[in-house]
Write a structure and sequence with these properties.
Leucine-rich repeat, LRR (right-handed beta-alpha superhelix)
């Protein structure tokens, strides 16, 4: 790989998976990490690795301890559970040119510190954050305050153990930071984490919000209600769908076109098994949230029941404040 980079002109280098070459996965990995280790690493503009394993971790982590001054995109997805924690010197502790950062299943508790230098980020996607990679809502809010170009934020924890320490929960600041470009927000975790994060930020330009909460006996989400109330686009969402599954219940709000638009939505899912818990949890979250229901014209209620080899969907539609009443049934198989 070093010989190849020496031969070509000093152009930006993109490291990404290629499956149309007569090489084995190990050979492709050796080529990738050789480029990371080379003296040409400052030319690398994009890194995409979707098969990180424990056996490859040590060499990768060592190669990524230096600054990559030309890096604008980094996507790394782990397979299985990575045991070692990524050190704070990852990327030399600084990534000023980074525009897209996507990490999956990575234990990296120093992530907020790196983000303070990545103030040009447009997309931040942290998936399946393990317990060993936990960082506090306060640390994340501090990092978000410098990312004035951020449009998309995905923050998804692996387990309910991502609950913040009640004694260290921050007091609401005098004023909240408003990310000027944030339009897409996706969160999965305990509701207390999101509430603590939202005490410090607001996002009036949101039009795509996807929330997954782990089960809790009592949901108290005034900051989520405030966030929804301050987002102008959500007030125009008049089409609602309530869906129950074997392991969760979901409420979705969409524009009044009648068709579900995954780019413009407000979806809230609660992970729990019992139907009684599902309905109770959803009722707790929605009971004091007038912005969720004030503009509704139609509500669909669907129940998905999984049988061996198929999933059956029963659908019922009810009128909102100005719609007509109708009921329908349909079945879907997968």
């Amino acid at each position: 790989m070093s010989d190849v980079l020496d031969t070509w002109p000093a152009l930006p280098v993109i490291l990404m998976p290629s499956f149309d070459r007569p090489t084995t996965p190990d050979q492709r990995w050796d080529n990738t990490v050789a480029a990371l280790e080379s003296e040409h690493s400052n030319r690398i503009s994009e890194i995409q690795i979707f098969d990180m394993t424990n056996s490859r971790w040590e060499r990768f982590a060592a190669a990524m301890q230096k600054p990559f001054t030309g890096l604008t995109r980094l996507d790394v997805l782990a397979r299985g559970n990575l045991v070692p924690v990524l050190p704070g010197s990852f990327l030399g502790g600084s990534a000023p040119r980074l525009r897209t950062l996507s990490l999956g299943s990575f234990p990296f508790p120093s992530m907020p510190k790196l983000l303070l230098s990545a103030n040009g980020l447009v997309t931040l996607n942290l998936e399946d954050i393990p317990d060993s990679g936990y960082f506090s809502p306060d640390a994340m809010a501090t990092a978000l305050a410098v990312m004035t170009s951020l449009e998309t934020l995905y923050l998804r924890f692996r387990s309910p153990r991502s609950r913040p320490d009640p004694e260290s929960r921050p007091l609401p600041p005098p004023t909240r930071f408003v990310p000027p470009a944030l339009t897409h927000l996706s969160f999965e975790g305990v509701y207390q984490y999101l509430e603590d994060l939202l005490t410090q930020i607001d996002a009036p330009l949101l039009y795509d919000l996807y929330i997954v909460f782990f089960m809790d006996l009592n949901f108290d989400v005034p900051q989520l209600h405030r966030l929804i109330a301050h987002a102008e686009q959500f007030r125009t969402y008049g089409h609602a769908r309530v869906s129950t599954f074997d392991h969760s219940i979901q409420l979705g709000l969409y524009p009044k076109t009648g068709a579900v638009d995954q780019r413009r939505r407000l979806e809230l899912r609660i992970n729990c098994r019992e139907l009684e818990w599902q309905l109770s949890s959803l009722a707790q979250i929605c009971s004091s949230s007038a912005p969720l229901i004030s503009a509704l014209e139609e509500v669909e209620i669907r129940e998905y029941i999984h049988h061996t080899g198929e999933t059956t969907c029963g659908e019922r539609s009810m009128a909102g404040t100005s719609g007509s009443v109708h009921f329908s049934e349909e079945s879907l198989s997968y």
